[in-house]
Write a structure and sequence with these properties.
Elements lengths: L1 H5 L5 E2 L2 E9 L3 E8 L4 E8 L7 H20 L8 E7 L3 E7 L3 E3 H6 L6 H20 L2 E2 L8 E4 L4 E3 L6 E2 L10 E3 L6 H5 L5 H17 L9 H10 L14 H11 L11 H9 L7 H10 L20 E3 L7 H15 L12 E5 L1 E2 L4 E4 L2 E5 L2 E5 L4 E5 L6 E4 L9 E2 L4 E9 L4 E4 L2 E6 L2 E6 L4 E7 L2 E7 L9 E3 L1 E2 L17 E6 L4 E5 L2 E6 L4 E4 L2 E9 L4 E9 L4 E5 L3 E9 L4 E4 L2 E6 L1 E8 L1 E9 L2 E9 L3 E6 L1
Parallel strand pairs: 15-21, 22-28, 30-36, 37-43
Antiparallel strand pairs: 1-2, 2-3, 3-4, 4-6, 5-6, 7-9, 8-11, 9-10, 12-13, 14-18, 16-17, 16-19, 19-20, 22-25, 23-24, 23-26, 26-27, 27-29, 30-33, 31-32, 31-34, 34-35, 37-40, 38-39, 38-41, 41-42
Helix pairs in contact: 2-11, 4-6, 4-9, 4-10
Length: 633
């Protein structure tokens, strides 16, 4: 229980025995607890009212808390998290006791990379579609459909949660003109008017599935304003390269409909959308298709997993000018919330503020007063005097003392650059680092940027050595043993069978989509191998994320592995004056504005285009390292 004391958490909440913390954010904490009466484990959500800035915001969050309990009581579906109990813990505030089963939040799975096969992604989509349609049939609009509110159990089944801003379609629980939700997943009418019905949830669900299947947002942007503008005014982006196993024309047809700007043009239900999407998928079996269609009727029991997401705090509230006459309705609703929780919070003052913590690059561990709270990007409640520390392997730790009223930009982490000794046995080998020959032979000192991945190759006559180093890894003064070329990976002894396949091994710091002789071979990650029959092959490589395309003719030798080398990545920063515009690289929208924002681009020749309201301008550049562009627009 010492851990609970350090985290300022109670040992019991109501009748529940607290076991450990599951997740914490600016607006609340979620703990694992046990009901001693029936020995059932539950997830308990505690609300942090002292983290809310104003009394009006306190009223709103209390109303949301109470609404989640009331709305969940109207729903009885295996794909929706069940609320068991609601109460108040003296000294801590109101709480909700929910069902608990270990698993992972969907946003956590999506951030881990594209490891899920199409069948599993479609299973997740089918489960959420069924749950949302059940809520809509009860007249309930979720209003915040996003990956952070979808939980994937260890058995692969999915649950929808967090009805904190849900509403009945015939109820008016918030003032007209207020947008509640998360910007990237909001519908156009949600942004413009704040009035929503089930069709708004269907749009948000379409954004979620687009991101789940493709790994990118249909309306990308480096700022909230850019994202909201694109949702309201622009079609979803073209996915390049297309999603493997889905017909491109079918993809466009389905997502153009579900993401239509006009609510009446969208699918009538979420399950109708998923059924249509299934018709465009090529890489699943008939049995899988039959099973998925069955899930769209009724899903079985599924658990809510352990909370590892910070999405509890990522909901944005963007207020519009309030029409006259809505203030009294708002105050009346707030008064109901006060009565529901006993009014205990009136004696508490505002003590903290919520801060969006981002880093470049992302993925840094975040510590508040030496206590680990998560990884960037994330939201966190901070009080005056709190010390924030960011740590990422290969980069220097960054400290920041929080001052109320400050909202710093993304923290730029400085890579650790060291002088490393490259040595070999025997000595006298030539050194190639990231496909660039170094002057001199081993033992040789080189500058080593620990903030990026490296490829090291050593050769001396018929001896050689090659290895990949991940970000944060260093040679460490080791002497690398050179081996004869006949036993080295680059020149293995050919097998007895001259028709045995050979391999291409991707060497570089990013993944690419590969086509061989016109056949799509899928995505290849750094260090991965691609088996091919011996002979000469045309190899096409592309990375939409890093604006890279290349075509090569390569010879594959039976039983041998040849490197497929990629260029290094460079940071491109674009700034225009007096105005700004969209930044495109080789005609592809980067999702950033020309306001000094940066993007990672593969080294080489690129055409940079900035499109502003009064015109556009092109610049052709050769990138051989980080580069900043600044020109009038």
């Amino acid at each position: 229980m010492a851990e609970l004391d350090n985290l300022n958490l109670p040992k019991t909440i109501g009748r529940y025995q607290v076991l450990r913390l599951l997740g914490s954010g600016a607006m609340g904490s979620v703990v694992l607890a046990e009901d001693p009466r029936i020995k059932r484990k539950v997830a308990i959500k505690l609300m942090k009212l002292d983290a809310v800035k104003t009394e009006t915001d306190k009223h709103e969050h209390l109303l949301r808390f109470q609404r989640e309990a009331e709305v969940s009581g109207l729903l009885n579906h295996p794909g929706i998290v069940a609320i068991y109990d609601v109460g108040e813990e003296e000294g801590y505030g109101p709480f909700l006791a929910m069902e608990f089963v270990p698993g992972k939040p969907l946003d956590g799975l999506m951030k881990e990379g594209g490891t899920l096969p199409s069948r599993e992604k479609l299973r997740i989509a089918a489960g959420l579609a069924e749950a949302l349609d059940h809520a809509h049939a009860k007249g309930i609009v979720h209003r915040d459909v996003k990956p952070g509110n979808a939980m994937v159990g260890e058995d692969g089944r999915t649950k929808l949660m967090d009805f904190g801003i849900a509403k009945l379609e015939d109820a008016n629980l918030t003032q007209t003109g207020t947008f509640l939700g998360t910007p990237s997943y909001a519908s156009p009418e949600q942004i413009r008017e704040g009035k929503v019905d089930s069709r708004s949830d269907i749009f948000s669900f379409g954004v979620l599935v687009f991101e789940l299947m493709s790994g990118q947002s249909p309306f990308p942007g480096s700022s909230i304003n850019t994202i909201l503008y694109r949702i309201v005014n622009e079609p979803p982006v073209e996915v390049q390269p297309p999603v493997l196993g889905i017909l491109p024309d079918g993809w466009r047809r389905v997502f153009d409909k579900v993401l239509s700007k006009r609510p009446e043009d969208r699918y009538a239900t979420c399950t109708a959308f998923v059924r249509d999407l299934l018709d465009t998928v090529l890489d699943i079996t008939k049995e899988d298709r039959r099973e998925l269609l069955g899930l769209l009727k009724v899903t079985g029991d599924s658990p809510i997993p352990e909370i590892r997401s910070t999405a509890f705090d990522e909901t944005m509230v963007v207020a519009r000018p309030e029409p006259r006459g809505t203030g009294r309705i708002w105050l009346a609703a707030a008064a109901v919330a006060l009565l529901a929780v006993g009014g205990w919070f009136l004696s508490h003052g505002t003590k903290a503020a919520r801060l969006q913590i981002e880093s470049q690059p992302a993925g840094a561990k975040v510590f508040v007063n030496d206590l680990a709270v998560g990884t960037t990007p994330m939201n966190q409640s901070l009080q005056a005097g709190d010390t924030l520390r960011l740590e990422l392997k290969g980069f220097r730790p960054l400290a920041y003392a929080f001052k109320p009223g400050e909202a710093p930009p993304a923290f730029a982490l400085e890579p650790v650059v060291t002088e490393e000794l490259i040595d070999s046995v025997p000595a006298g080998a030539t050194v190639v680092l990231d496909e660039k020959a170094q002057e001199g032979v081993t033992p040789l000192k080189v500058l080593w940027n620990q903030g990026q991945a490296h490829r090291l190759t050593l050769t001396k006559e018929n001896l050689g050595y090659a290895s990949d180093f991940a970000s944060g890894e260093i040679p460490g003064g080791r002497a690398f043993e050179l081996k004869e070329s006949s036993t080295a990976e680059s020149r293995q002894e050919p097998p007895l069978d001259p028709n045995a396949p050979g391999n291409l091994k991707l060497a570089g710091g990013f993944g690419v989509r590969v086509k061989v002789d016109g056949k799509d071979m899928g995505d290849l990650t750094p260090g991965a191998k691609l088996a091919l029959p011996p002979g000469t092959h045309k190899v096409d490589m592309a990375s939409a994320k890093h604006y890279f395309k290349d075509s090569r003719s390569l010879s594959v030798i039976a039983g041998q592995t040849a490197p497929l080398n990629l260029p290094a990545l460079a940071t491109l920063t674009v700034e225009t004056f007096p105005g700004t515009g969209k930044v495109l690289v080789d005609g592809q929208d980067t999702g950033i504005e020309s306001d000094g924002s940066s993007v990672k681009v593969a080294e080489g020749r690129h055409t940079i285009t900035v499109r502003g309201p009064k015109g556009s301008k092109n610049e052709t550049v050769e990138l051989h390292g980080d580069k900043g562009l600044r020109f009038p627009l």
